[in-house]
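Two proteins were folded this term; both appear here.
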Amino acid sequence: MNTAEALSLLPEVVAVVAEASGIVRAANRLPKDVRKKGRIDLVTRTDLASEALLKKRLAALLPQASFLAEESVSSLEPGPLCWIIDPLDGTTNFAHGVPFVAISVALWQAGRVVLGVVDLPLLAETFTAVRGAGAFCNNEPIHVSEAARLEESLVATGFPYAIERHVDEILAHLRQMLTRTQGVRRPGAAALDLAYVATGRYDGFYELALKPWDTAAGVLLIEEAGGRVSEFDAQKPYTFGSGCILATNGKIHEEMSGVLGGRKREG
């Protein structure tokens, strides 16, 4: 799929995502039906309804594409042509009435994301990107920030569900970031965080143990908005198998990587 073909497909994908967002908005006014997948990993009826709709509608757009979706995942490896879906990122927020939730849809082809949509159903913003065609919020072009130093930056992070396994590393990183930046935010939805880096609200974002559906669309947004994405080590490219992600405006990437323990670029 070339850029022109992806651009032609994008409005149809946005319309499908908008339909799923309607499910989220309607359910937000009702009592939440919450189940636990883990000690603090929740799923609601809304997650399942959103995913079912997205898979049905997207399958009609590209019948040949497979799916990698959070609530029905069987493998973390996307197929050659694959929709990567998070039907409701920020489920814990949703369950508690906090509006920081997102729907993330990305189209993966031949080893890379070629189209991405991150929709914020309760905040009325839709972020879109097609590889090679820029990034947008509500159809207006967006770009990463111009912050050149960490001390003038606002950054975001998140905490994995397996918090006990990572808590010492998380606290060590948080201590460094709190003392070296203008502030650290933790909304609780990685797709939203990545979109906010793409539009310049955050200068950087980092997190451990994310899954492909958390990051696929957001990474494309950032790259198309002029930013940079890697592992904590800036010399290592981010992949779906990475245990960590660092996403920035590019200008603070090396400095932020150094604070997180990554190698500094030589020379």
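Next, the second protein.
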Amino acid sequence: MRRRLAAGLVVASVAAVAILLIARPFRSQARDPGSADRVTTSFATVERRSLSSQAQVSGTLGYSGSYALVNRASGTYTWLPRTGAVVEPGQVLYRVDSKPVVLLRGRTPAYRALSSGMSGADVQELNASLVELGYATHAQLDPASDDFGWATKYALERLQRHLGVTQTGSLALGAAVFLPRAARITSVTATLGGSAVPGPMGRATSTRREVVVALEADRQGAIRAGDRVDITLADNRVTRGVVSRVGRVATASSADEGATPGSDAPPTVNVYVRPRHPRATGHLDQAPVQVAITTSTVRHALVVPVTALLARPSGYAVEVAGVAGRRRLVSVQPGLFDDAKGLVQVTGALRGGERVVIPATS
């Protein structure tokens, strides 16, 4: 009978401890000082260090840029790129009447034929493209020049020879499409064998992987270009990223589904993140991801584990271990929390190097 009673008491004790642990989620890990004698404890050292707080925000992984492919030639489409194909500068983007339309690097769209004696932004990007592609050297042709001179004509003839077209030394309207970088074809609206008329014939993006995060505008000041972030992919793999730029215009968006009718979500700004290892992000056009962004940082802070905090009616305290096994309670004020590392900044009568009591991990 006594053995059965003892066994029952053990089971009840284990159940009570389990309920106590389950009832204290991570964000409420401050301990009750009255439980110190009932929970096995260990020690942690008070550190003075930098501490950061991270926010987990949703983002969309895809490709940066969105470009309209605008045709300026007339005739019949005799070859078109497939969706998903990547066309590099200097390569044929499509063909009209079997004549190649070449992709060149530039931000000014083609709007006129180019020939000797002309000048302008479109001439400058033609010069820069010819040098970039190796049809002229820097010594032969200044890539910053916006004049169409003999060097431009000679380099353009070399490009035309490579493309297998008549070497006129001038660029006809419709013979080239200018885009800022290599194009990844996302759609083709033109039809093979259909009439080629001036106007849109498809769309493309760049080949650069990018994550776009709609960050609440009041957090904008904490994020800067160059900040490092962690990107959690759909399969739970984590890869590193770098903030490439932060939007300057706040956009008011409607409330998410499930929000109170008539309420609006807080204004947001777009934060653009460049993955440091693009191949690790796959090839999906769009995929949801989670991004851990550092929103606050403090330097030379006194730091203890969150589990060292003791909840008291008057606030919080930590239990400091002294000599000869003596312990004392020290009131502290929590500051910045680092949820990822389970640390918290505290202010109070503490010194770096002191030991505080925490629940044992085993």
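Residues 1-29, 255-259 have pLDDT under 50 and may be disordered. Residues 40 and 83 are 62 Å apart (CA to CA). These notes refer to the second protein only.
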